[in-house]
């Protein structure tokens, strides 16, 4: 504790007041010295009972809601399980595709082509067994919402280029990418339509990535943005609810080939 | 303009009990040599961590928690009733308490802990600016910010640039500064909030607090961040490029400082810059000792030339 202690003389005292009269207003005071200590809040401190009692019912209610069972998985999944694409990443991207495709049609009359999230945005793994509301909070603790971004053919190529060069298992759906040993694109495909000049593509992503998060700068210079107001976390909760069992696998949507 | 708050106090407790005896003894011994002793307690970026971290947490086992923090605050207040409790923003977002209750519990808890003032962090906007306005109904402390123009928002009239606290006859001016929101927070969340240059605002605030109101101490609650390598404004740059501030209580960068950093300001005087990590795992404590200025002594406090 001594290490944290610091006596700092801020001003030199040129005088000392003796026997000053208390509590008359309009007196001026001058800083003479200061002490400081940045202290740990740890188990050496007791808990104030009023605060414990105040928070307990809220914590209990949250616990009950968080433990609400939504689905089930036989297999644990972590984002470090495999390279290029992962079961958990595919699960998240596929969930966004399934939930947003009908919404895009109904709300904006557009055809969703693909989904792209980011690897860093997978905030937790999923353990085998019960999938609960807490699972959704663990994988997506932030309040980010889904946006649909319309990209030009040029920007769509930049998107593929970004994925190829980074070689990170960013979750995506609706597209396929093969790269060679030099990380050059060998094959790229949008399932819903041909990749060609003059065409535009509707990509669902998070409002965080839309602003260029994770250097996904191709999203910034877009043709159009459609705001769904659908929080990613709520989307995952709705998706889990719709499935009795969650089955997700690594597949061949993003691969590095020998030739 | 008289809108200062008087902090009620009884006489300084004569018997000092409990933990932290060494520091306390020092503080009390020091307080006897000076006319006034003011204690500042502060947090930043608590991020909805109302409960302690679990005992199996890899980094902060059993650390933090509002119940332990209140116990500590109460201990310090027993030692020195002349205590101000301040926060540098981002009390919102980080646990389901926020997701489920939108900030109500954070503000209610801070009120119960006896906070006097806080400022607006970027995460306060996470459920929109209108939510901040709504949650302020639960705050018994002042939310202050001087560099967001809020005229065309729901916070107009609810957030003041500064607050003057009169503690044991000592006038303490506290003002708040927030970070540039563009690129950090969606426009649909901060709406018509306009960010103003912190350096310009500091000069305005000092002119008001030091020159007009003759505050004895000036404290800045900053959510700008401790230090950036780029020329983006931070607490260290702010301290060096201005004058009149005695203490900057910082946040945003979640910086753990063992002790406040001393920075020379434009007049060559020391400014203390402090920040205590995040999640309430640490609390900062600064004790200021002041002496009365004689009438015939030249005023030595920082006065900005107009």
Automatic annotation (TrEMBL), chain A:
Source species, domain of life: Bacteria
GO biological process: nucleotide catabolic process
Record-level GO cellular component terms: outer membrane-bounded periplasmic space
Gene Ontology molecular function: hydrolase activity
Domain spans labelled 5'-Nucleotidase C-terminal: 81-219
SUPFAM superfamilies: 5'-nucleotidase (syn. UDP-sugar hydrolase), C-terminal domain
Cited Gene3D superfamilies: 5'-Nucleotidase, C-terminal domain
Coiled-coil region list: none
PANTHER family, A to Z: 5'-NUCLEOTIDASE, 5'-NUCLEOTIDASE-RELATED
Name of the protein this chain belongs to: 5'-Nucleotidase C-terminal domain-containing protein
Origin species: Psychroflexus maritimus
Automatic annotation (TrEMBL), chain B:
Biological process terms in GO annotation: nucleotide catabolic process
Signal peptide: 1-27
Keywords linked to the UniProt accession: Hydrolase, Nucleotide-binding, Signal
GO molecular function, one term: nucleotide binding
Superkingdom classification of source: Bacteria
Protein name, UniProt field: Bifunctional metallophosphatase/5'-nucleotidase
Pfam families for this protein: Metallophos (PF00149)
Calcineurin-like phosphoesterase domain: residues covered: 39-255
Family recorded in the similarity comment: Belongs to the 5'-nucleotidase family.
